[in-house]
Every structure is written in structure tokens, then in C-alpha cells.
Sequence to fold (53 residues):
Amino acid sequence: MKINHIVQLGEGWMSRAYLINHEAVFRFSKEKDGAMDTEKEIKALPNLKNIFL
Fold:
């Protein structure tokens, strides 16, 4: 992915979120605990997709 535009959307206790090219949001963990939470969220996403779509 070529990055033409990046904006920081926000920051929480465990991560920072960025909007890339006005179309995709990327969130980056600050520490190991945040990364572990992100892994849990990744595993939960398929189930949430079925509920909200």
C-alpha cells in the first residue's frame, strides 16, 4: 500500500489509530498488553461481522 496521506485519529491507553489515504484505519498497540488485546479482537471480528451485517 502506498501511503499518500496519514492522519492520527486518536490515542488510548493501549493503542494509536491512524487514517491512511482517507480510506483505511490502522491501529497500533503501544505495548505488549495492547497487542494481546488486539489479538483477541481479531479472533472476535468474524463473529461480530455476522451480528452487525
Remarks:
- The two ends are 27 Å apart (CA to CA).
- Strands lie at 6-11, 15-20, 24-29.
- The mean pLDDT is 90.
